[in-house]
Amino acid sequence: MKKYHFIGIKGAGMSALAQVLYDIGHEVQGSDIENEVFTEGPLRKKGIKILPFSEDNIVEGMTYIAGNAFKDDHPEIKKAYEMGFEVIRYHVFLADFMSSYISIGVTGSHGKTSTTGLLSHVMNGDVETTYLIGDGTGFGLPDSKYFTFESCEYKRHFLSYYPDYAIITNIDFDHPDYFNDISDVVDAFKEMASQVKKCVIAYGNDPYIGQIKEHVKDMLTYGIESGDDIIAKNIKVTESGTVFDVEIKGVHYDTFKIPMFGDHLVLNSLAVIGVSYLEDLDIDLIKESFLNYKGVKRRFSETKLHNMVIVDDYAHHPKEIDATLETARKKYPDREIISVFQPHTFSRTEKFLQEFADVLSTSDKAYIVDIFGSARETAGNLSSKDLVDLIPGAELLTEADLERLDKHADGVIIFMGAGDIQKYEKRFTELLS
Predict the structure, then answer these.
(1) Residue 224: exposed, middle, or buried by beta-carbon count in 10 A (0-12, 13-18, 19+)?
(2) Contact between residue 166 and residue 215 where contact means Cβ atoms under 8 Å apart
(3) Where in the numbering of this chain does the Mur ligase C-terminal domain appear (predicted)?
């Protein structure tokens, strides 16, 4: 048993990894800012100690794991180095940790967390699987043979990993504060794919996947009514979810039902089915696991109050918003769909301003709150008003005037964003209660 101290334990990946190490029998604690963050609930539930940042936390006998958000001049990291202790970066530690498992990395510009959550849940229906999800959820099983994890492209962190399998959900230009353009993103994915030991399972209709194919040992592609290796056919939407047939390499494999709505969730399911097929998992147990899947945090998480449906969702890129709105339309075809969107970072808002406007215009009504900056970026060349001006009928919204949402009495109100949009949702829910 080892003793671990996490510097920045409330980060989603850090929180998940801390839980995994705790579950498999290690002693775990960590430090972070004192503001409450949604990732700390599972840590506290397991009794993992969370301390305020302080140089006094750095003592003999600990293995120090540092979050990638913190530079070497962070007081705790600096103190650890001064005392001669090793500080291991999150992605470096994770690369070493997964080497003793059959590992499946889930990557892509959008849909990583949803797909990792689904994969982890479904595989555990048949085989013990340790997992690490980007919503801050981690679960370790001491005797597990498999490890599933979310593999992030930001700053090319995923190049630390050499997994047995990788799922690529899509390749798109995001993180304009780091990547130069789409070619830069594609180059990163090419290098990542070349490090996969066995097989890449990829969305076949992605415009850039052809460029990846020549860099991999083996690839299976998936799609809907397409010419891919794994295909969903005869899709039917029911009141309780989506039913579809699956063909693999031209042969009928089985019929699946998922308690979810939207083509992007059918595609995520096909990726999971691909891994199950390659590892020859029990198909009946896999089908059963799909049926009792409950989703991951902040991915179309619903609360029903009075006759309203209030949704919390992490969508912060135009394509993610589009997927979230598609889910809402399919699940609630007869209701008014209202978007309450918080743009995340000035650079992303500026880069995709028109795309945000186009996709939010497909809501029945759009409200925009102030842009959420970041530690790297506290100001920019535009404001939320610039986005409002491009969306017909859109309005600016503040925390003080949330009661304006009351008029959408039978609506589906979707609070979307990667910043602190949850405080708006929480306040509105309190007003309704």
Answers:
(1) middle
(2) no
(3) 299-418
User: Can you say which residues are annotated as belonging to the binding site?
Assistant: 108-114
pTM as predicted = 0.73
Determine contact, residues 130/147, Cβ cutoff 8 Å.
yes
Helix (H) or strand (E) holding 224: strand 219-224
Identity at 321, one-letter amino acid code: I
Q: How far apart are CA 426 and CA 283, in angstroms?
A: 40
Beta strands at 63-66 and 102-107: parallel, antiparallel or unpaired: unpaired
- Give residue 184's identity as a one-letter amino acid code: D
The helix (run of H) or strand (run of E) holding residue 138 is strand 138-139
66: closest CA among 97, 98, 32?
A: 32
* pLDDT the model gives residue 420: 84
Q: Roughly what angle, to the nearest 10 degrees, separates helices 263-278 and 112-123? A: 40
124-141 pLDDT per residue, tens? 889 999 999 988 889 998
Single-letter code of the amino acid located at 26: H
- Cβ neighbours for 334, distance < 8 A, ≥ 6 positions apart: none
pLDDT at residue 295, as a whole number: 65
Reading the block at residue 256, the tokens are: 């699946």
As a whole number of angstroms, the distance between CA 312 and CA 135 comes to: 13
Query: How do 365-368 and 337-341 pair as beta strands?
Result: parallel
CA distance 209 to 107: 13
Annotated binding-site residues for ATP read: 108-114
